[in-house]
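anyone seen this seq b4? input:
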Amino acid sequence: MKYNLSKLAGHIIKHRASMKLSREVLAKHAKVNYNTIIKLESGANKNPTVKTLIGLAGVFKTSIEKLIS
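predicted toks r here
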């Protein structure tokens, strides 16, 4: 499977909006720093840690593979 981390920002924004979560709430539930969410959504962070991806996938009830593909 080919991963495209450049699409990660769009996936995070889409999932967060569909769940009506603020960045602050998403960060808290995913157990990541608020600034991490900002950097991921803006595309400034194109290399998230596995811990971050696990946290986001858990909140969004999806797999890491779907989040980054």
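The radius of gyration is 11 Å. The first helix runs from residue 8 to 18. kinda curious what u guys think
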